[in-house]
Write the structure tokens for this entry.
Amino acid sequence: MTMMRRIRAWALRLTGIFRSTHRQRGFADEIESHLQMHIDDNLRLGMNPGQARREAILKLGGVELTKQVYRERNTLPMIDDLLQDLRFALRQLRRSPGFTITAAIMLALGIGASVAIFAFVDAALLKPLPYREPVRLAAVTESVKLFGRANLSYPDYLDWKQMNHSFSSFDIYGGGGGLLNTPTGALPVSSLRITDGFFRTLGVTPFMGRDFYPGEDLPGTGDTVILSYEGWQKWLNGRPDAIGQKINLNGLPYTIVGVMPQSFDFAPRGGTQFWLPFHAKGECDLRRSCHGLEGIARLKDGVTMQAALSEMQAIAAQLEKLYPGDNRGQGAAVDPLSEVVVGDIRPILLTLLVGAGLLLVIACVNVSSLLLVRSESRRREIAVRGALGASRIRLIRQFMTEGIVLVTLGSLLGLGIAAAAMRILTSLIPKFMMSRTPFLVGLGLNSHVLVFTAAIAFVAVILFAFTPVLRLPMTAMRDGLTEGSRGSAGTLWRRFGANLVVLELAIAVVLLVGAGLLGKSFYRLLRVDINFNPDHLATVGIMVPEKLYPKDEDNVRLQRQIIARISALPGVQSVGLTSTPPVSFNGNTDWIRFVGRPYNGVHIEVNMRDASADYIKTLQAKLLRGRLFTDAEDGTKPKVAIINQTLAKMYFPGQDPIGQRFGNTDLAPNTIKEIIGVVDDIKEGSLDSEIWPAVYYPIYQDEDNYFTMMVRTSQSEESMLPTLVSAIHEIDPGIGTADPIGMKARMHESPTAYLHRSSAWLVGGFAALALLLGVVGLYGVISYSVTQRTREIGVRMALGAPRSSVHGLVMREASRLAIVGIGIGILASVGAAMLMQKLLFGVAAWDATTLLSVAGVLGTSAMLASYIPAHRAASVNPVEALRSE
Amino acid sequence: MSLFLWEDNTRSGKAYVGDRADVWQGTLALMVLKTIEMMGPQHGYGIARRIEQTSGNLLSLNYGTLYPALLKLEQEGSIASEWGVSENNRKAKFYKLTRAGRKQLEQEARNWQQTTAILDRFLLPGEEQA
């Protein structure tokens, strides 16, 4: 009962806030009628009218006081005050739109940048992989000294699986390409061969149909396939009766048994549409030294990654003893799956987050110093309010409210900027990068991001509420009422505000240096020696279904036909075929052993590439010694090889390698090849990789049904691509083509270039904003200090100081701040650059050119920014200045 | 005693918070409710006047303090108000008891009597012994 009454009263008071004026007026009437009745009574008692009224008011206890008590009872004073503060804050901010807009935009930029980058960090680094207990998932592969994580071979996998005690399950995946027969011809699709428990290890189940049953990955169990959701939508139009349908993959019919859920993607091979049972077959699967697979495993409860690694290394060592020829130097690698997925982009994302954070700090510092300036100019207003009875708490609350309004404005704008930035940034991610980072799909303003924004906003509110409060000692409130009391306050401002600007400039230097170094890395990366000419060079991937061209001779005939057909096209200068185009990756290696030299069993691992006769000529790579392949060199001719310069230098220092011979580790007679030429070091690996020793074999002597065609064109290579693709399909519509692209574009869009470019641009953007904000901050500080010292300048000039010395006075102050800021910034940025050394390419952390140019740019901008206030100071009219105070 | 309790109300809102003020608010509310019950619909001035008379002029109150109490009772739904015309033809706001108010009055009057009866036992020990 009482409770109900209280709630009712409270609700009425709450609504009373909004109907306040109406009630006030009603109460004024009531009081008036009360007084009238009282006066009537008093008159009746014989008082004169004046006396009667006075007595009535006295008895009431004061009209205004009564009204106030009534109002407090009518509404909730706390909320009422808050709204009042809010109205006041909005009025204050509206009154100085310049300040409000500047501050809100600065905050919005800082918050927008940080929030957008945080969204990426959250999606990539904070959110767990979308599998069951992802922390227990390990990526398991063999390892070799040359490149760390390497691939598994199937026989090794079977032994590892049987011998280990660390994993509750252990599965492999491998393969990649596939050709899907469609009504419009053969299309290249992404497929993976997996062992039966692959999905169970990840902890995902098909949303339609079934998973592979145990043993379904063994040969002779029938050709079944599980589709990804995307594949089901794309190739079967999402038909609900897809299960049991047949599709034609690589010329073979496969029965669809399942469809994976839409949310599922396997990040290490993102975008895979067809999941096939492993079905070990062919020479490579059964050979222990043929490494083409990768493993995933789920750790048993209580087993750590470290323990699993030790066990697998021990097993690898055991196998190395058992199979010294095949497994020499083959170790084991066990890493968290998440590390394999996001390990590469982690340093970049963290660098970007720090960059955005620094920008936010600059923005906050700038806004704080604007608030300081404002609180200086509002000293009198505050003093008056204090004198009229506003308590300190009430004033702090007022500042707090202004801070909240400002930050809310900035945060909302910032969220808008962040949402736009996220959309733009994700749309700029090329498809191949996106498929490696499926967790970035659908990036947006989710709850994590909003909480992060709220946290930033909260800190900013605290900062902005207390900046002016710091300047609000009680005594200063009284001082503020007296005229011309700026002396002490000015000093304090100069000390505090100046430090803030030094901080800003230092941060701007760090960001500029970071951007400079990343930009220079990117520049170096694109100009690294690749030792061939990428201009006017078109590349087209070609997939030949084994079903259509089962024998090596068929394949050779087809390749000759392709070369002849393409060469005849107008605008084509020369055509070459290769197993792997340059600037792809180091890998696809061969183990070689030289004839007539002692061999200690340590694998000589070299990049292995197949090349047609005109391949090296088409690349315009330099032949250093010997000769190139001829078109006649096929399986019927003696085996030959061309080596690169690095191999020649490593294994034939001071000798002529031409005529030397090598074979496989056993020197099996059918593997012996004679070296016929030495070619310049063509960049086979990614742009930032080292040159490995490499061997090139005639493509007709080492058949592969997936190869890349390189075409040197006389006109723009991009315009030739459609012609090239249709020419291939005219030869045989059953042949698949993939990724037609110009070599230059291929290099620019390669993951390495992409990562370097995007980080350089983003940090560059942050740095440009930082420069702008820093310079604006310096300008603000200097102009304010000039305003503060107008009288002093007037006195100086009245006493005979020439204008140039006043000018110098201001410029000196600005230079001092700029020099200190830049100095601290340079030191800090060398430290920061050391931390991000991983992201730099071909440039040292203490790169003098970068440091000097940054100092130069910032110094010049700082001087330009201070020139305007200095000029204003120098044109002060002494008489006016002295009179103004 | 009652006099300085009155004075509390002359200060702004926060002074109400103390326990004493709560006690006073309770008694004032009771007096108001009882007065309205006795007189029927009545305006603020009339209620104030009547409270003074009833107390035999022992209470001398600032009439202004009555209005927040009336507002509180109205917010709690114990009384309702409407504009009308006074006996001297003045426009005035009249307060009347609601059903809930009548119940509240009965209840609180009972409570109050109980409280004073208990306190009497402490404060008048002689009588009890006699």
Q: What stands out?
A: Chain A has 30 helices and 23 strands. The CA atoms of residues 583 and 747 of chain A lie 7 Å apart. Residues 486-526 of chain A form the longest helix (41 residues). The first strand of chain A starts at residue 137 and ends at 144.
